[in-house]
Every structure is written in C-alpha cells, then in structure tokens.
Amino acid sequence: MMLIPGRVPYATWKAIHAGAPATLDPACLPGVAASAASVTRILARGAPVYGINTGFGKLAHVRIDAADLATLQRHIVLSHAAGVGDPMPVPVVRLMMALKLASLARGASGVQLETLALLETMLARGLTPVVPAQGSVGASGDLAPLAHMTAAMIGVGSIIVDGQPMAAEAALAQAGLSPLTLGPKEGLALLNGTQFSCAYALTGLFEAERLYRSALLTGIVSTEAARGSDAPFDDRIHQLRGHAGQIETAAALRGLMAGSAIRASHLHHDARVQDPYCLRCQPQVMGAVLDLLRQAGHTLLTEANGVSDNPLIFADTDEALSGGNFHAEPVAFAADMIALALCEIGSLAERRIAMLVDPALSGLPAFLTPRPGLNSGFMIPQVTAAALVSENKQRAYPASVDSIPTSANQEDHVSMAAHGSRRLLDMARNVDAILGIEYLAAAQGCDFHAPLASSAPVEAARALLRARVPTLQDDRHMAPDMAAAIALVASGALIACAPPLPGLA
Fold first, then answer.
1. In the CATH scheme, what is the homologous superfamily, with its name and number, of domain 2-193?
2. Which residues are known catalytic residues?
3. Is the pLDDT confidence value at 64 over 90?
4. CA atoms of 118 and 100, how far apart (whole Å)
5. Helix (H, G, I), strand (E, B) or coil at 160
6. Residue 364 pLDDT
7. 201-309+325-497 belongs to CATH 3.40.30.10
8. Cβ of 240: how many Cβ atoms within 10 Å?
9. Which of 24, 131, 220, 424 can bridge 148 by disulfide, Cβ–Cβ 3.0-4.6 Å?
10. pLDDT confidence of 118, banded at 50, 70, 90?
11. What is the CA radius of gyration of the chain?
12. What is the b/e burial string over 145-158, where b = at least 16 CB atoms within 10 angstroms of the residue's CB?
C-alpha cells in the first residue's frame, strides 16, 4: 500500500494492519532531506535547541557537547526502552511502524532518509520489533513502546522473524541490513509521538466496525427467533429523527429481514403490540454506535496522518519549535468512544439472549431446549454472556479522565491514551463471545419455527452455523459449540452471509 504522507485513507491503514505491505510515495523524500539539512544548519548556529543538543524532559536545561550528540540519541532510546508486560500483537506493531513512517515522512522531524528506508524495509521483509505493551501514559508521546521499536532498529532488543524472536542485531544481519546510527534529533523523533496509542485505537476501531456489522445479523436472527416485528425498522420513523447512523442501520435491518416467511407468518392477527427494546430499538442503539464509531474514526484518521513528535522542524525558516503534539488526548477521547460502542453492542446482544431463553418473553421453550428440566439448554451460556457484558462495563470507564504526573512534574498532565486504546482488543474479544452465544441461541430459536424459513441472509447464517454445530436436542458439552460460533463471528465469516452492511469507509 502506498503511503502518501498526510493523505493516507482509512482503508489503507486497515489493509496494513491485515498484512499488506507499506511503501512511501517517493515524492515525500525531498522534504525529508530538507528537514534533515535544516537540523544541521540549526546545530551550526550553536544555540541550545531542545532534543537536538540538550537533555530531555526535566533535563532540557543541560547542554550537550557536539562530540556527544550521537551518544545522546542512542542513550535516549536505551533509557526509554523500559516497557513491561506481554508483547504487542504483530499486526499492531506493524501498524505502529507504518504510522511512524508516515509521520516522519511529512518532513517535519529532521530525520535522515536512511531512517525511513530502514523502517520501510523492515515492514517489507516482516521484521517486527518485540515491543512490551505496558509503560506508556500517552504523553510525552508513547515513549517506552516506541523506544523498544527504535531499539530494534539500532540492533538492541529482539525482532520477530517468521514468527520467532531473534536478537535484533542478528535479525538485521540475516536480512542484509545494518543497525541504524542515529543522527541529531533522530532518537527523539522516533520515540516521541502517539503511534502506539493510535495503532491500538485503530485496531480497536477495525474490530468495532466488524462487530457492529456482525451484531446487525445476529440481532435479526434473534428477531426472527422471537417472531419480532419489522415495523420498527420502517424508514419513515427514522427519517423523522434524522440521525444518519440510525437511518442506515434501519435500512440494513429491513434488508436482512426482507422475504422472511417467519415474519410473514405473524404479520397479521398478532396479539403482541410491541416488541421489547432489545428488538425494537436496534436502529436507535446500533445507529448511535455507528455514528460514534464514525466520529472516532474521523479523529483517528486525522491523528494517523498528522505529526506528533517534538520539537518540529520547519526547514523553510530553519526553526525548531517545541510544542505538545505528542499529547494523545484526541486518541484517548476516541478510544473512550470506541469502548462505549463496544460495550453497548455487547449489552444489547446479551439482552436479546436473555429474552430468547425466557419463555414469558420469547414464546419459545424455556432456555431453548425441547425438554426443559431434564435439560438446562442455554441457561449458562446466557450467564456467560452476562458476565462478559459486566466485564466490558467495567472496562468502559473513560481512561481519558485519569492523569498522573511524570518526569519530575515536567509532564504534569497525561492522556492515558495507551490504556484506553489497549483495552479495546480485550473488550472486542468479549463481544465476539457474546455475539457467538447470541448466534447459537438465535439459530436454535429459529429451529423451533421449522418448516418456516427466514430471509436469505438469515438462512445463509444458519446454514453456516449448522454445518459446524447441530441443533441442540439434549444437553451436551456447550463449550465446543460456543467456540465454533465465536470463531465464525471473529473471522468475519458470519458477515459474509449478508449483503454489504453500513460501515466506516
């Protein structure tokens, strides 16, 4: 995928996360070279300039001799590579590297062309630094994780090659590459920025978009299982309110239900006046989720295409300006929004599962088993879904409202974007499981309506599941059935049963 600095679209970031190669538009290279030359001229003036010939953070007042400038940049990388915890997933590291590459290529960071070339080559050859996932507070940039990424570039630490960790220097040598020798400003430029938080937040956004679409389909299977009405999806209702996400979601739900013989069977003379909110209000809740995800996506796309290190180099005037673009508050807010969306997708789905297992609400056999009492059916899968929803509620508390001073109070307000972004993947896994349980329960509910069939998308979804999981007659080991259904949700196979559904791109 071609990275055109400042103009990389959402679909390209998504493709890079999925494993697509990332290459720079050569048109950016003269600007990068001009920025590096500007650093040389700034140094020649002899004045103290933060991060170029001074210490860092609280030590910015310490002047560094010219003979020690290369050592200064190496030392900041080694000292800041202080992360802990499990390694970042490889796709997220690759996305972080591509985000850093695109940021440096804007020509405002003062780095050498060789630095960009090494990042680009590492991405192309599958050399992925081992980066501990904990240790960033989201300002002054994602220092610790980006320092681990940079350490691998100078031959320190470990690199994943063909799925296995190797010593960084050996991995580079095996690929015919030499460790990077950092020039003035380069260590700081590489480890100062929001790329760790942004990579995790974008990954959470990709997952949330898939789960939004998946929940539309599982929600309609549940609606059919409960013999719910499609009247609440009527376009006239949603046009009167005017929210774009709600209007699009209602249209998608109508399309997923169109042509259903199950719906036709109770279209007239149904004694029920209204469905419960978990069915009736799907356009309102899921439409709000879509609008929220789009708003978060707008923020993250802006961040992904921006420059967030410090100081910034303006080659036309040979100025190095210190600011605060490394503060990841926009990313923190976006991550909190995605967390809310994930929480609500799972919460609404769990309410549909609870409705289906309750015969007073669904009209189906208790706990969706033909012989309740002797069998417990879906009693405990619903409890599991409830547990996961509660866990996600706890995780959805806004990370951005927290702060803790660092660097001897020089960095006295931080964003916590790293925490807010990193939790999204665990939340998404929980929603995968909730939707997988709903998928099983809703398909079981529809089985009670045989020989009536639902719409083409619903029947395709049911056939996909039934090829792996038979209808539940008597109790059996539930965990394998749940694992199979969850895998269909997580892989995107479920979404493939439906026509194109609304999304972010």
1. Fumarase/aspartase (N-terminal domain) (1.10.275.10)
2. 50
3. no
4. 12
5. strand
6. 97
7. no
8. 7
9. 131
10. very high
11. 26
12. bbbbbbbbbbbbbb
